[in-house]
Write a structure and sequence with these properties.
The chain has 184 residues and is mainly beta. 12% of the residues lie in helices and 41% in strands. The chain is globular.
């Protein structure tokens, strides 16, 4: 799940570091543009030679969650820019049954002119066929929103969702006739 539209339950989270270059503690969530930053003075290191990515675990709405992000300067100290949020497990190789992603121009590409009539019910799931080694998935498309949710019949790694979402992004770019990025 990309974290830009996640409804954080609290403005402060407690976290444990799962990687080097960070130590556990509390962090304030700060919104910068369309990105979330964890502001925790003194908890993130930017030592030369270390990877910029940090992995943290926390609990959100009673569910275990993993946060991946990059070191980010905020208010004269190092924080963590949230690049990815995985709710449901803190295991790096965890498998999931659904994933949500945001796309620019999704809402406009999913609208239709009433005089043309709808080809399908707006609430009917689309079936994404099997692709490479990735199983068939169902897609719930929004009614005037920017997110799509993919569901699989059996738990799969997030990379399987990424394969389907990349193909969907290509189709969306074609339908919108302009690049359709995935913010946040």
């Amino acid at each position: 799940m990309y974290a830009s539209t996640f409804q954080w339950p609290d403005p402060v989270i407690s976290f444990v570091s799962l990687s080097t270059g960070a130590r556990g503690g509390d962090a304030e969530l700060v919104e910068k543009g369309d990105r979330w930053i964890l502001k925790a003075p003194g908890h993130f290191s930017g030592a030369t030679g270390q990877s910029e990515q940090r992995i943290l675990s926390t609990t959100l709405n009673g569910e275990p969650a993993q946060i991946r992000g990059s070191v980010f300067a905020i208010d004269g100290d190092l924080g963590l820019r949230v690049d990815e949020l995985r709710v449901g497990s803190v295991e790096p190789d965890a498998e999931h049954v659904s994933a949500t992603a945001n796309f620019e121009h999704l809402a406009s590409a999913c609208t239709y002119r009433p005089e043309d009539g709808a080809a399908r019910d707006a609430h009917q799931a689309l079936v994404f066929p099997a692709l490479d080694d990735v199983a068939e998935m169902r897609a719930e498309l929004p009614c005037r929103a920017t997110a799509i949710t993919l569901s699989a019949d059996a738990p799969v790694p997030l990379e399987a969702f990424e394969t389907q979402l990349t193909t969907f992004q290509d189709l969306l770019t074609f339908a919108a006739d302009q690049p359709c990025g995935r913010p946040g």
